[in-house]
Design goal:
The complex is a heterodimer of chains A (about 475) and B (about 350). Chain A is built from 14 helices and 13 strands. Chain A has a domain of about 260 residues: Spore Coat Polysaccharide Biosynthesis Protein SpsA, Chain A. In chain A, the strands form two sheets. A ten-stranded mixed sheet of chain A has the order 3-4-5-2-1-6-11-8-12-7, sandwiched between helices. In chain B, helix 5 runs parallel beside helix 7 and helix 15 packs parallel to helix 17. Chain B has a domain of about 110 residues. In chain B, about 75% of the residues lie in helices and about 0% in strands. Chain B is mainly alpha-helical and about 350 residues long. The chains are: A alpha/beta (about 475), B mainly alpha (about 350). At the A-B interface, helix 1 and helix 12 of A face helix 1, helix 2, helix 5, helix 7 and helix 9 of B.
Chain lengths: ~475, ~350
C-alpha cells in the first residue's frame, strides 16, 4: 500500500468515526426528545397536590461518609426534611479519620443500638450501630474503612426497606426527590433500579441544605459542565431509557431494589465506577437468567451537586470516570452480544465501547494526526478544514439539541442572561473544552490499561453557594 | 483526498454534511430562543390571570358573592381552570357549591365541556375530566365512564377519581372489573379513591365480587378491601384462612386480620412452608395474640428466615401484655443467638424515642 493510500485510509477512518459517533448521538437525541415529551405528558397532573396514600414503597436512604466532618451535619439535616411517606436514613461512617463520628453522635444525639445486623453482602467489620434519639428514622453504622462500595454494601445489609437510595453525602436533594424517583416503582412492578437527573449546584443558592435559587456559576469551567451534564442526562440517559438499556445510574442519587442488588452480590469494592458497574451487572445477570426487569430514569432535576472549578480536580475526576467505565465494561463483557443480551448487550454496550470507552483514543489521535498531516503537507487545507468543521459542527449541534431538550422541559435557568450565556457556552465548549476532556479521559484509559494503583481524587468543594440560615 | 479539493466526491459529501449540520444548529438555536420568548409571554399571561383570579377565588371561598370578570378568550379560561381546580381540590363544605357556581358564571363548564369533546394534549384532557367531575358529572357521566377505559393510566385514573367523587355507589359496579383487570392502575391510587366511597356499598360490592373471584383477582380484591374499616373485612379473611388458599391469597387475607376470634386460624399458618406467609401470620398475631401465643412467637425467633425472626421479635415487643422485665427474661431464655439479637434489636427500636 502506498503512503498516499495509508493517508487516505486514515482520513476516511477518522471522518467516518466522527460522523458515526455524532450521528449515533443525534439519533439518541431524537429518542430522548420523544421520551421526554412522553414523560412530560405523563406528568401533566403534577400541579395537583400530592396525597400520601400509604402505599408508597418505603425507602432506606444510604449515605456513605468518610472524613466529612464539615458538611455531614447539614447534609443529613436536609435529607431528614425530605417529603415522603416512609423512609429511613442510614449513615455509614466508613472509618473516617476526622471527627465525622463525633459530629454525628453529638448533632443527632445518637446512642448505641442493639442491631441484629445481617451480613447478606460481605463487607468490612462493623464496629457499632447507633440510633438517633431525636429522629427515630436515623441510624449510623460505624465501620472499618473499605471505600464507598464497601460502605454502601454495609448500608444495604442494615437497610430495612425493600428499596434503597444511594446518596452522596454532599448531594443536594429536592424536597420531593424521593417521590419522583419512587413513582416508577409504583407504576412498574418489574422496576429494579431508577436514576435521577443530576444538576450542577455551582452558582445556585442553597439554604439549610436545600436549593432556594437557581443561577449560573461565574467560572467558565463550571458553565461548560452545565452544558455537558445537560447532554449527558437529558440525552444519554433519556435516549437509552425506552430501550431499557440504561447502563449508568449516577452514584449521587439512585434507587435500587434491595433484594435484586443482594442477589447480584452488591457493589464491587475493586471498581472505581461502582455505580455503573452495578447497573451493567444487574443487566447482565437479569438477562442471563431470563428475568423480566426494568431499569429506568427520571429526567426531573432531583439532585444537585458541586462540580470541579479547577482543571486539576476535573482531570482526576474524568480520568476516574473513564477508568470506572473501562472496569464496568471489562468485568461485564459477558453481556456484549450475549444471545439474551437484548438492547443492553446488542446496542448500549457496543455503543459504550465504541463511542465512550474508545472515543478519547480516537478523538485525541484524530486531532493530533490530522494536525500533523496538515503541518507536514500530507493533508490538503480543504480536508483538514472539513475534518474540523464536521467534528465541531456536530459537537455544536449536540450541545444545542441538549439546550433544546432543557428548554422544552424544565427550563430551570430563567434569569434573563441565563439562556444567552448557556447558548454561548454550548457553542464555545466545542472549541477547546471537549478536546481537553478527551485528553483527561485518555489519561484515565492509560491509567487503567497500565494498571496504575487506583486512587480516589479528592473533590475540592467551595460550597460558595451555600447560605447558612 | 490527501491532494483533495472539493472535487473529490468524498470531500464534497463531507462538505455537504458539515453545511447541513451547521444550518441545523442555527435553526435549533433560533428554536430555543423562540421557545424562551414564548415561555416568557405565557408566564406574563399566567401572572396576570393569577393576579386577577386568585383573590376572586379566595373571596368566593370566604363566602362573598363577587362579580365575575369578563373572560377575554378561551385561552384565558384555560389558564383559570388549573387555578380553579387547585382551590376546588383543597376545600370542603359549603364553599364547594359557591366555587362551582362561580365557575358556571364564568362559563368554565363550557370550556371544560369543549375540552372534553376534543382529543387534545393530555394535560388539557386531564384538566377537562377533573373539571367535568365537579361541574358536569350528571351531564357527562357516560363520557366520563368511557374515559375510565382509556388505555392511558393517568387519563383513566383521573376519570375514575371524577366519577368516584360524584357517585361512588353508581360508579363502583362499573369500575370494579376494571380495577381488577387494569394492572397499570396501582393499588396506591385505588385504595384512597375507594376510601371515599360509602363503606357499606363498597363492602357489598367487594363481597359480591369475591364470591366469584379466584387467584390473582381475589388477591387484588383483598388488597382493595384494605380501604374498608377492619370490622368489615375480618369475616372474609377468616373464611379464606379457614378454607385454605394459594399462598398469595393467604398473605392478602392475613393482612386483613383484626378479630381475636381469628387467632386460631392465624396460628395454623405459623408453620407454613412459605416464609412470606409466616411473616404475615406473625404480623397478624400482633393484633389478635393472646398470652399463650408468646411461646409460639419465641419459637419463631429461631426461624431459619431472618425476616420471620425480626417480625416475631417486633410482634413480641408490641404485645400490650408483655412488660420490659418479661421481655428481658424471654430474651435471656431464647436459645438461638440470632433470635436473641432480633429481640434485642426490636426492644431497642421500641424503646427509642
Amino acid at each position: 500500500m502506498t503512503l498516499a493510500g495509508v493517508i487516505y485510509g486514515t482520513q476516511v477512518f477518522y471522518l467516518s468515526y466522527f460522523i458515526a459517533i455524532n450521528c449515533s448521538y443525534t439519533l439518541l437525541g431524537i429518542v430522548a426528545l420523544l421520551t421526554l415529551n412522553r414523560y412530560l405528558d405523563r406528568h401533566a397532573m403534577d400541579w395537583q397536590p400530592r396525597l400520601h396514600t400509604g402505599a408508597e414503597p418505603p425507602i432506606s436512604i444510604l449515605v456513605p461518609a468518610c472524613d466529612e466532618e464539615a458538611t455531614i451535619g447539614g447534609s443529613i439535616r436536609s435529607i431528614l426534611q425530605l417529603e415522603y411517606s416512609e423512609y429511613e436514613v442510614v449513615i455509614i461512617n466508613d472509618g473516617s479519620k476526622d471527627r465525622t463520628l463525633e459530629v454525628l453522635l453529638r448533632e443527632f444525639r445518637m446512642l448505641p443500638f442493639s442491631e441484629a445486623y445481617r451480613r447478606q453482602i460481605p463487607c468490612r467489620e462493623v464496629r457499632g450501630v447507633y440510633r438517633s434519639t431525636v429522629f427515630s428514622n436515623l441510624r449510623l453504622i460505624d465501620k472499618e474503612n473499605g471505600g464507598k462500595a464497601d460502605a454502601l454494601n454495609s448500608g444495604i445489609n442494615a437497610a430495612r426497606y425493600p428499596l434503597f437510595c444511594a446518596v452522596d453525602a454532599d448531594s443536594i436533594l429536592q424536597r420531593d426527590s424521593l417521590w419522583r424517583i419512587a413513582e416508577p416503582f409504583m407504576e412498574e412492578p418489574a422496576m429494579i433500579a431508577c436514576g435521577g437527573t443530576v444538576r450542577i449546584a455551582n452558582g445556585c443558592r442553597v439554604e439549610d441544605g436545600f436549593l432556594t435559587g437557581i443561577d449560573l456559576p461565574r467560572k467558565p469551567l463550571a458553565l461548560f459542565q452545565i452544558v455537558e451534564y445537560l447532554r449527558a442526562f437529558l440525552f444519554g440517559r433519556l435516549g437509552w431509557e425506552p430501550l431499557n438499556a440504561l447502563l449508568l445510574i449516577s452514584g449521587a442519587f439512585g434507587v435500587f431494589r434491595r433484594d435484586r442488588v443482594i442477589e447480584v452480590g452488591g457493589y464491587r469494592g475493586d471498581c472505581m465506577g461502582e455505580d455503573m458497574e452495578l447497573v451493567v451487572r444487574l443487566h447482565r445477570l437479569q438477562r442471563a437468567a431470563g428475568r423480566r426487569y426494568r431499569i429506568s430514569f427520571v429526567p426531573d432535576p432531583i439532585c444537585w451537586t458541586e462540580v470541579p472549578e479547577s482543571l486539576s480536580v476535573l482531570k482526576d475526576q474524568r480520568a476516574r470516570w473513564q477508568r470506572g467505565l473501562s472496569e464496568s465494561i471489562v468485568y461485564n463483557r459477558g453481556l456484549l452480544f450475549h444471545r439474551r443480551g437484548g438492547a443492553p448487550g446488542w446496542l448500549a454496550m457496543p455503543f459504550a465501547i465504541l463511542f465512550e470507552w474508545l472515543s478519547p483514543l480516537a478523538e485525541v489521535s484524530g486531532y493530533v494526526l490530522m494536525t500533523l498531516g496538515f503541518v507536514f503537507g500530507l493533508i490538503s487545507v480543504e480536508a483538514f478544514a472539513l475534518f474540523f468543521l464536521v467534528a465541531l459542527g456536530f459537537g455544536v449541534l449536540l450541545s444545542v439539541t441538549a439546550m433544546l431538550l432543557e428548554e422544552l422541559s424544565f427550563h430551570l435557568y430563567t434569569r434573563p442572561r441565563n439562556l444567552p450565556t448557556l447558548l454561548f457556552y454550548a457553542v464555545l465548549e466545542n472549541f477547546g473544552y471537549r478536546q481537553l476532556v478527551a485528553v483527561y479521559r485518555l489519561i484515565g484509559l492509560w491509567r487503567w490499561a497500565t494498571k496504575r494503583k487506583a486512587i480516589w481524587g479528592r473533590m475540592i468543594r467551595n460550597a460558595s453557594w451555600h447560605v447558612r440560615p | 483526498m490527501a491532494s483533495g479539493t472539493l472535487s473529490d466526491p468524498l470531500l464534497f459529501a463531507v462538505f455537504v454534511i458539515a453545511l447541513g449540520v451547521i444550518a441545523l444548529s442555527l435553526v435549533l438555536l433560533a428554536v430555543v430562543a423562540a421557545l424562551r420568548l414564548q415561555l416568557l409571554a405565557r408566564e406574563r399571561r399566567l401572572r396576570r390571570v393569577i393576579a386577577r383570579w386568585q383573590p376572586l377565588l379566595a373571596r368566593t371561598v370566604a363566602g362573598e358573592r363577587i362579580a365575575v370578570p369578563r373572560l377575554l378568550s378561551a385561552t384565558e379560561r384555560e389558564l383559570v381552570l388549573p387555578l380553579w381546580n387547585e382551590v376546588r381540590e383543597s376545600i370542603r363544605g359549603e364553599a364547594e357549591a359557591r366555587l362551582d357556581a362561580l365557575a358556571r358564571r364564568a362559563k368554565l363548564d363550557r370550556t371544560a365541556r369543549a375540552m372534553l369533546a376534543l382529543r387534545g394534549p393530555r394535560k388539557k384532557r386531564i384538566l377537562a375530566i377533573n373539571t367535568a367531575g365537579y361541574l358536569l358529572a350528571a351531564e357527562c357521566w357516560d363520557r366520563l365512564l368511557a374515559l375510565c377505559r382509556d388505555p392511558n393510566p393517568t387519563i383513566s385514573l383521573t376519570a375514575v377519581r371524577a366519577v368516584m367523587r360524584v357517585d361512588p355507589a353508581r360508579a363502583l359496579p362499573e369500575l370494579l372489573p376494571l380495577m381488577l383487570a387494569r394492572e397499570n392502575w396501582s393499588l396506591a391510587h385505588l385504595v384512597p379513591l375507594l376510601r371515599a366511597a360509602d363503606a357499606g356499598v363498597l363492602a357489598e360490592t367487594l363481597e359480591r365480587a369475591m364470591s366469584r373471584a379466584a387467584g390473582g383477582d381475589l388477591v387484588r380484591l383483598l388488597r382493595l378491601a384494605e380501604a374498608l374499616p377492619p370490622d368489615r373485612t375480618s369475616t372474609w379473611a377468616g373464611r379464606i384462612l379457614e378454607a385454605g388458599a394459594p399462598e398469595p391469597v393467604i398473605e392478602a387475607a392475613l393482612r386483613l386480620v383484626r378479630d381475636p376470634r381469628d387467632a386460631p386460624l392465624v396460628r395454623r399458618y405459623l408453620e407454613h412452608p412459605g416464609w412470606q406467609v409466616r411473616v404475615r401470620a406473625i404480623g397478624a398475631l400482633e393484633h389478635v395474640a393472646g398470652a399463650d401465643d408468646v411461646a409460639r412467637l419465641v419459637a419463631a425467633l429461631g426461624d431459619r428466615e431472618w425476616w420471620v425472626r425480626m417480625r416475631a421479635a417486633r410482634t413480641l415487643v408490641r404485645l400490650p401484655f408483655l412488660g420490659e422485665e418479661e421481655l428481658s427474661r424471654l430474651r435471656e431464655a431464647v436459645p438461638d443467638r440470632f433470635g436473641r439479637d432480633a429481640l434485642a434489636h426490636a426492644e431497642a427500636e421500641e424503646r427509642a424515642p
